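FORM 7B - TANDEM STRUCTURE REPORT

SECTION 1: FIRST PROTEIN
SEQUENCE AND TOKENS:
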Amino acid sequence: MEIDSRSVTDIANNFDTSSGALSDVASKAEAWEFGYDQAGRNYGDLGVRIAAGFEGAESMLTRWSEVSKDNAVQLRGSCAHYTSADEVTSQSLAGADRAAER
């Protein structure tokens, strides 16, 4: 199996970019409000459900940002382990080839 380390790193970088964007939106969502002043007083249960959705938006976006960041870290770690193992294997095979030549 061969892994394109540069592509994996690019994907990790994209996860970082997405994480930052989601974090920015989460910060803005924290300021969103939906209550009687925004909806009027006759929305009843629908207004309560919309307000609950707004309240959950910030925490959902924050969690999504955190998970995106975690994905980037995991991809970079996996790529580093793969690269390290590949280098060790290459060196080992090169050493075996030299020993066989003797």
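SECTION 2: SECOND PROTEIN
SEQUENCE AND TOKENS:
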Amino acid sequence: MTTLTPPSTAKLRLFTSPAAFPNPQRLRIFLHEKRIADRFDEQSVTWHRSASSGSGSISR
């Protein structure tokens, strides 16, 4: 006999960045139209590139 476990209440993390989503509002509208916006936790991410080392870092 199998037991069903309830779905997790944890939200999926959605990282929006100007480079990946030039217009994140369109993504938000899409999520609301599909009625799945409550399943996501949006976090804005900005990518900074260091000129001296050529590497980058992420800030939230």
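SECTION 3: OBSERVATIONS ON SECOND PROTEIN
The helical segments are 24-33.
The beta strands are 12-16, 40-44, 46-49, 56-59.

SECTION 4: SIGNATURE
Preparer initials: ____
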